[in-house]
Amino acid sequence: MKKTIIALVSLCSVPFMASSALAESKLDPSLPTYARTSGVSGNLSSVGSDTLANLMTLWAEEFKRVYPNVNVQIQAAGSSTA
Questions:
Q1: CA nearest 68: which of 45, 32, 44?
Q2: Where are the domains of the chain?
Q3: Is the pLDDT of residue 42 over 90?
Q4: CA 76, 78, 81, 82 torsion-angle sign
């Protein structure tokens, strides 16, 4: 029983170790710095998985902060609607 618990804890910690390693990776230094452009407006719709709805909401909030003239709509439908 004790070995099973240790094995489960070890397996569960692997994704966290991998994500930690990815978080420490650096961007390519040859990539240019993002330059905001003017005249961006309109509608942006994201229709898809409810699994990614929270991530899309975070992206949309930041995008709207940079480009306030863009109306962002997120429609998250689960696989039951497919």
A1: 44
A2: 2-81
A3: yes
A4: positive
Which residue in this structure is represented by tokens 């240019």? 32
* Pair 21, 13: CB distance under 8 Å: no
Q: Can you tell me the distance from the alpha carbon of 63 to that of 71, in angstroms, rounded to the nearest whole number?
A: 10
Per-residue pLDDT for 73 more than 90? yes
Task: Please report which confidence band the pLDDT of residue 3 belongs to, taking 50, 70 and 90 as the band edges.
Answer: low
The pLDDT score that the predictor gives to residue 48 is: 86
Residues, the chain:
82
- 71: helix, strand or coil: strand
Burial 11-26 (b: 16+ CB within 10 A, else e): eeeeeeeeeeeeeeee
Overall pTM > 0.85 = no
